[in-house]
Design goal:
By secondary structure, this protein is an all-alpha fold. It is built from 12 helices and 2 strands; from the N terminus they run ααααβαααβααααα. Helix 1 runs antiparallel to helix 5 and helix 5 packs antiparallel against helix 7. Forms a complex with TatA.
Length: 273
């Protein structure tokens, strides 16, 4: 294909991707009550699933402290068009999140024809696993990282006379940052898979720099969570598990590449006889 033909193909991929975002954004816009009352504002209420789960866990462990920690703050809007603007922008963001698997599939359809046959074979299931990891990270961020951050920040006070009245944009920004950060961090195994396929990373390198990786993970957990040691540990544990999983993925990739190389060498030797 010529350069113009590539641009034409890319244009249609972009158009289809944009249409999917518009469709999901429109659906989210008209589902206003569910989007805001149940989904967006869920972590701001004491009956949210995560708070009830921590309460039950505390009761099992003989502690009532998780049940006593209540979310107590007011979300407010200070601008005339603030709620409308937030409704539109939030619907657009939700549309991108819902359309993410399809967006990645369109990207993959554009890239796939330019790959060699063995590269296509090695990348089978990429769209599925990328989408699954993205969804798992999104759920972890929404049900674990975001509620812990919101609960800590909303209950933190420097003086009892100061009332927490949180701006709507600040609340949604915090929620979005927590969930999306976790969604992309959970893509670590797929990133390692492609880097290992390209020969840019090996399991030995990942094992050698494991201590450095722990420090980096702790820094990332400190950035995406409030200065609460419990929240940081809860976020660090699954990321560390993903790192260990990535080491095994890199080891599996190298084992497969070695087996294919040995088979190719054996075939060449047999053909030369």
């Amino acid at each position: 294909m010529s350069f113009i033909d590539h641009l034409e193909a890319l244009r249609w991929h972009v158009i289809r991707a944009a249409i999917s975002v518009v469709v999901f954004s429109t659906a989210a816009f008209f589902a206003k009550e569910f989007l805001f009352h149940d989904l967006i504002l869920g972590p701001s209420r004491n009956d949210f699933w995560t708070y009830r789960a921590f309460c039950r866990l505390g009761e099992i462990m003989g502690s009532t402290e998780p049940c006593e920690n209540s979310v107590n703050f007011v979300i407010q809007n200070r601008e005339m068009s603030g709620q409308l603007a937030m409704h539109i922008s939030t619907s657009f963001m939700v549309g991108i999140v819902l359309a993410f698997p399809y967006l990645f599939w369109e990207i993959w359809r554009f890239v796939k024809p330019g790959l060699y046959p063995h590269e296509r074979k090695n990348s089978q299931g990429a769209v599925f696993f990328v989408s699954i990891l993205f969804i798992l990270g999104l759920l972890f961020g929404y049900y674990v990282a975001a509620p812990l951050s919101i609960n800590f920040l909303a209950s933190y006070t420097v003086d009892a006379s100061i009332e927490n009245q949180i701006d709507m944009q600040s609340y949604i920004s915090t929620l979005t940052t927590m969930t999306m950060s976790c969604a992309f961090v959970f893509e670590l195994p797929m990133v390692v898979f492609f880097l290992a396929k390209a020969g840019l990373i090996t399991p030995e390198i990942m094992q050698m720099y494991r201590k450095h990786a722990i420090v980096v993970i702790l820094v990332i957990a400190a950035v995406i969570t409030p200065p609460d040691i419990t929240a940081q540990i809860i976020v660090t544990i699954p990321v560390m598990l993903l790192y260990e999983l990535s080491i095994n993925i890199a080891r599996t990739v190298r084992r497969g590449d070695t087996a294919r190389l040995n088979a190719k060498l054996a075939q060449e030797q047999n053909s030369s006889r």
